[in-house]
């Protein structure tokens, strides 16, 4: 189904081509108006082309209006301000359009650069528990994956695990010195965290521990069987715990390629960079220097002791992804602290002739009021703990508001609402903003929150159940739009596809959250002001159908944020 904006743009384009057949002009862009007093849709085409066409914007606008082809779509079209063209669509057209939104998928064939998108997100470090510092990358990356799939891209979601590097030398030493086997069997990842933190504290006063860790790491990298076996054990146990959390959060990955997967490619990267003159030796290390225009610090590719760095690993990763997936773009969802790193990596990749579309989708940090999280300092809140507390709070509210539900229903609903609240609290904010961690704010159940949206969806399902109990279903229901609130809600229901496109362009799921909040507010205003079940059958079924469509759009939008819905609350 064509987007309503595209249908209107085609009409305007025909008018423009008729008036200016020999002048090359960009196609008109139509968007929903911010103020319903200025039409349903609007374009500023006349204003942005006034200089090129050497005419007043209002004259251009009038010429376009005078030459709009005959159609069954536009009720009225007028000019506002310096040259905005305001478009009002016919109720009959809106009714016809709304009747298709549940049956037909949006047509995104006009998007020209479709292909495979690789999204690199979540990326926990093996042998450390997932904590709320991992939340942002995980939920933002998952939502972007869902958004691009909705638009018709082939999407590969990769969990780039931290399964290689200096921490494993430390962990192997700590394992052999301080492991509590009983705790390790009960809570392996918790025990690994405990001994890792202990190593960091002990090594501050005992430098010999750091040297021992370096030796164990070297043995691991050289393929020592004992260290390799222990390292694989750390990975397997960690993934088992991570996957419990991912399953609970309804998050899936296509691949789990960690840094170790690219280890054998890294020597080739160093060789390529040296042969092409992109890197050079400096004090025994292999380094890429950037010129003044690039304004980047030197990137060390290989230390003088032969060790590789993150830049080497990420370049090897790009090489693998290009050759394996031939991607349209590669997206990296990490926090803002890695901006310089990725600028270096992308710059080097382009010097190698890898002119793909690389994007660092960075986000602001989640902090305590007095600083950032640190596993080394042991001041983190585990992600599992956060989810449990959210579900516990949701369960208490459900118990208070709807005690007649069965225990199984209460538990299932609490799980959906609690986890939805955590996700939405993050995704509803601009990703580049910092978030100060606050339990009450994170788990709020009023205002612009997931519970409010889920309550709206559940209200619609309850309305449908009550209608059915009274003998009314959606069978043979026909939309009738007479009231202002019906029209406002109907127009808003057409907007999900265009909102998703904008969210994809800016990699900002919060645009979808903003839309869903507006939709929920508009629906609740409709529900509170226009009776449904007390109307005569024709109006009753029409408003019931409009309610049903609002519920379906809410469900689809929430799914794009990775949030499930419930029929009761």
Automatic annotation (TrEMBL):
Keywords: Aminoacyl-tRNA synthetase, ATP-binding, Cytoplasm, Ligase, Nucleotide-binding, Protein biosynthesis. It is found in: Cytoplasm. A motif ('HIGH' region) lies at residues 124-134. SUPFAM superfamilies: Anticodon-binding domain of a subclass of class I aminoacyl-tRNA synthetases, Arginyl-tRNA synthetase (ArgRS), N-terminal 'additional' domain, Nucleotidylyl transferase. SMART domains: Arg_tRNA_synt_N, DALR_1. Residues 6-89 form the Arginyl tRNA synthetase N-terminal domain. Its main location: cytoplasm. It catalyses: tRNA(Arg) + L-arginine + ATP = L-arginyl-tRNA(Arg) + AMP + diphosphate. GO terms for molecular function: arginine-tRNA ligase activity. Its EC number is 6.1.1.19. Monomer. This is Arginine--tRNA ligase. It comes from Marinitoga aeolica. The gene is argS.
């Amino acid at each position: 189904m064509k987007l309503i904006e595209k249908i209107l743009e085609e009409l305007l384009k025909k008018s423009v081509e008729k008036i200016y057949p020999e002048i090359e002009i960009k196609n008109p862009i139509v968007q929903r108006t911010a103020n319903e007093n200025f039409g349903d849709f609007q374009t500023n085409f006349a204003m942005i082309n006034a200089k090129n066409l050497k005419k007043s914007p209002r004259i251009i606008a009038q010429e376009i209006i005078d030459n709009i082809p005959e159609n069954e779509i536009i009720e009225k079209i007028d000019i506002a301000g310096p040259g905005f063209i305001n478009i009002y669509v016919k109720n009959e057209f809106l009714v016809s359009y709304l009747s298709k939104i549940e049956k037909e998928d949006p047509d995104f064939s006009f998007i020209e650069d479709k292909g495979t998108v690789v999204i690199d997100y979540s990326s926990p470090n093996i042998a450390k528990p997932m904590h709320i510092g991992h939340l942002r990358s995980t939920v933002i990356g998952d939502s972007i994956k869902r958004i691009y799939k909705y638009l018709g891209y082939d999407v590969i979601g990769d969990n780039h695990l931290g399964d290689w590097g200096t921490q494993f030398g430390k962990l192997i030493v700590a394992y052999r010195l301080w492991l509590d086997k009983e705790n390790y069997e009960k809570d392996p990842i918790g025990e690994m965290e405990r001994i890792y933190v202990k190593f960091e504290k002990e090594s501050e006063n005992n430098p010999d521990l750091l040297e021992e860790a370096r030796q164990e790491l070297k043995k691991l990298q050289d393929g020592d069987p004992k260290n390799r076996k222990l390292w694989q054990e750390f990975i397997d146990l960690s993934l088992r715990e991570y996957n419990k959390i991912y399953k609970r959060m309804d998050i899936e990955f296509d691949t789990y390629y960690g840094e170790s997967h690219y280890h054998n490619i890294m020597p080739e990267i160093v060789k390529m960079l040296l042969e092409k003159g992109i890197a050079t030796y400096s004090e025994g290390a292999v380094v890429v220097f950037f010129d003044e225009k690039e304004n980047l610090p030197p990137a060390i590719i290989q230390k003088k002791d032969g060790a590789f760095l993150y830049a080497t690993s990420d370049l090897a990763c790009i090489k693998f992804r290009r050759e394996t997936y031939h991607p349209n773009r590669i997206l990296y969802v990490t926090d803002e602290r890695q901006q310089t790193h990725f600028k270096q990596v992308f710059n080097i990749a382009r010097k190698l002739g890898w002119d793909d579309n690389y994007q660092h989708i960075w986000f602001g940090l989640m902090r305590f009021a007095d600083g950032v999280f640190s596993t080394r300092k042991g001041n983190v809140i585990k992600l599992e703990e956060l989810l449990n507390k959210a579900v516990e709070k949701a369960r208490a509210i459900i118990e208070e508001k709807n005690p007649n539900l069965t225990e199984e229903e209460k538990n299932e609903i609490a799980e959906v609402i609690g986890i939805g609240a955590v996700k939405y609290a993050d995704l509803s904010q601009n990703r580049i903003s910092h978030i100060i961690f606050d339990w009450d704010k994170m788990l709020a159940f009023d205002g612009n929150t997931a519970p409010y949206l889920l309550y709206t969806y559940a209200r619609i399902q309850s309305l449908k159940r009550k209608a059915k109990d009274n003998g009314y279903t959606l069978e043979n229901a026909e939309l009738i739009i007479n009231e202002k609130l019906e029209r406002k809600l109907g127009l808003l229901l057409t907007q999900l596809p265009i909102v998703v496109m904008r969210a994809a362009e800016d990699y900002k799921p919060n645009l979808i959250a903003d839309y869903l909040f507006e939709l929920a507010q508009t629906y609740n205003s409709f529900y509170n002001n226009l009776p449904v079940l007390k109307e005569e059958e024709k109006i009753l079924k029409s408003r019931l159908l409009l309610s049903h469509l609002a519920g379906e759009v809410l469900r689809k939008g929430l799914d794009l944020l990775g949030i499930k819905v419930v029929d009761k609350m």
